[in-house]
Amino acid sequence: MNLFDIIGINQDDRGDNMIVLTPSDHMLVPDFPGLSEDGITITFDREVALAREDAQFITWEHPLIRNGLDLILSGDTGSSTISLLKTKRCR
């Protein structure tokens, strides 16, 4: 997931629609809310989350996603500026 790449969270695809997220040494913040040192297992599949107690079901409203988006959008990483200067050409 691009969001976790930007933040610097390691992702390990475990198949069965599951991903293990672990902290890295290159994260934007030393402690990311919702991510323990041991990491967490996430899934985007509700059925998998219901069948596996160790997997957290992730949606746009999940604190992990919301905290990540807030981190990116409130810092320098998620900011950009564009300007256009139109002038008459000098001959």
Mean pLDDT: 87
Please indicate the percent range of residues in DSSP E strands (runs of 2 or more). 15-25%
As for the CATH topology, it is: Dihydrodipicolinate Reductase, domain 2
Shape: elongated
Low-confidence parts? none
The number of E-state strands comes to 4
Query: Looking across the biggest beta sheet, what order are the strands in?
Result: 1-2-3-4
What structural class should be given to the helix and strand makeup? alpha+beta
CATH class: Alpha Beta
- CATH structural architecture: 2-Layer Sandwich
User: Could you give the distance between the termini?
Assistant: 51 Å
What about the largest sheet?
A: 4 strands, mixed
Taking Cα atoms only, what radius of gyration do you get, to the nearest Å? Answer: 19 Å
H/I helix tally: 3
Secondary-structure element order, N to C: HEEEHEH
Give a description of the structure.
Its EC number is 3.6.1.-, 3.6.4.-. The chain has 91 residues and is α+β, with helices and mostly antiparallel strands. It has helices spanning 2-7, 46-51, 63-74; strands at 10-15, 18-22, 40-43, 55-57. It has a single domain (2-74), classed as Dihydrodipicolinate Reductase, domain 2 (2-Layer Sandwich). A four-stranded mixed beta sheet has the order 1-2-3-4. The longest helix is centred in the last third of the chain and has 12 residues, at 63-74. The chain starts with a helix and ends in a 17-residue tail after the last helix.
